[in-house]
Design goal:
The chain is about 15% helix and about 40% strand. By secondary structure, the chain is of the alpha+beta class. The strands form two sheets. It has a seven-stranded antiparallel β-sheet, covered by helices on one side. A hairpin with a 2-residue loop joins strand 12 and strand 13. It is an enzyme of class 3 (hydrolase). GO terms for molecular function: IMP cyclohydrolase activity.
Length: about 200
Amino acid sequence: MYIGRFVVVGPGIGAYRVSSRSFPNRRVRDRDGTLTVGPTPDAPETDNPYVSYNCARPIETPTGEPLAVLGNGSHVDPIAEKVERGYPARDALATSLLALDFEKDDYDTPRIAGVVGADRAAIGVVRRDALLVEYVDAPTLVATYERNAPEPYDLEATDAGSAASEVLAADFEHPVCAAGATVDADGVSLAFDNGE
């Protein structure tokens, strides 16, 4: 089954996977502590604005709480910035997803995102017909296609690297690359798996 890009978040852990039929020549890179999806050196040139973006960012709230934001596009940055300014995770997801809306491509691709804290997580999606944002207390998945409403997901990983590898190996079509995040009282750990 092809469900496109997807996010899984739960308290203390999260992951994001790029699945793509159109732009498979992409990799995750660490750019000064932020994980970024972008084309490989051999990828065909494109002017598609949805191919490169920050997919995982560590942040800290005004009270010093460490959090991670994961998602499938340019909305990751405004969500992170709002949470850093003190917005509750649910509100940061809702306002940013609503403001940027679904992607204006041939498929009206939904925007998906999650915010992971040590003890709490929130997940959201904006699609042509709905905006869904909720707090979750167990690993929860939302994808751009087929599974585009939050649903429980059995994520067994306990660290960022294994979270990225686990979602990359998940039984969904066209895996490309993945990012993982863990959050505890000591901070945020990020990792990625490009399947190499």
